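Input record (one chain):
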Amino acid sequence: MDKSMKSTQGLFKSIHSLYTVERMEEMTLPSSNEMKTKQSEISSYVGKVLRDHFGKGPGSVYVSIAEPFVTIYVKDFLSATERVLYSGNHEKTLKKTREFVMDEISDQIMTFIKKTTEIDIEKLYYDWSFKNQSGVFLGVGPISQTKQLEPYKGQDTVHDEVIIMSERVEKKPEKITSARINSRTLIVVRDGILVEIEKQLIDDGHQEILRKAKGKLEKRLLNVENISSHIEGEIDEYFIDWDFDRDRSFTIFILNPNE
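The corresponding structure, as predicted from the sequence alone:
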C-alpha cells in the first residue's frame, strides 16, 4: 500500500472518530424528559423528608434546576401545631423549631440534590413565609464555574432596586449578579454587603439576631412594585438568605409570568 493511500485511510479514520465523539457528546446531553425526571425525584424526596420530620408535607413542591442553582419552592406548608403557634403570635418559637429541624435535614437534602443533578452543591439556603405558608430552599454549587447567562428584561431595574435597598440597610454591594433561570424564578446574588458592626455581631455569635433584623428590613424596604413593572411577570413572593462567612446574600423571586 503506497503512502498516499495510507494517508487517505488515516484521514477517514480521524473523521470517523471525530464524528463518533461528537455523536456521543450529543447523546449524553440531558433531554427535557431527563430534566423533568430529576425535578420530580427531588420534589418527591423533599416532600417526604418534610412530611417525616414535620408531620405534614407541603401541598405543592416546585423544583427548578439551572447550574449552579437548584431552587425548591414549597406551598401549603404549615402543620396544625405550627398554625396554632403562628396565630398565637409565637412566630419566634415557630421559626426556632424549624431551624432545629433544618439543621437535622439540610445535609440529607443536599446529598440527594448532588446525587440527582450531579451539581456539587456547597450549601443549602432557605427562607419561610409563614403568612403565605410557603418557603424556598436554594442549593448552590460553585458560582465561579457559572456560565454567563443571557440578560433578561428589566435586569438593570432589578439591580438598581436591590442596590438601593442594600444601601439603606447595610451598604452598596461590592458585586451584584442575577439570573432568570426560568419564567417563574429569578435569583439575585450580592457580594460584599456587611458593614463593620454586622461583622462584629457575627464574631460575637449573634448571627440569628442579625439574620432576623436584616430579613425584616430588606423585605420591607425592597421596592418590589417597581421591579414587577419592569420585568416579564409579577412577583408573587420573594425570599432572602445570607452566607455570613462569605459575605454573600441570595434573593429568590417567585414570579407569576404574564400571559
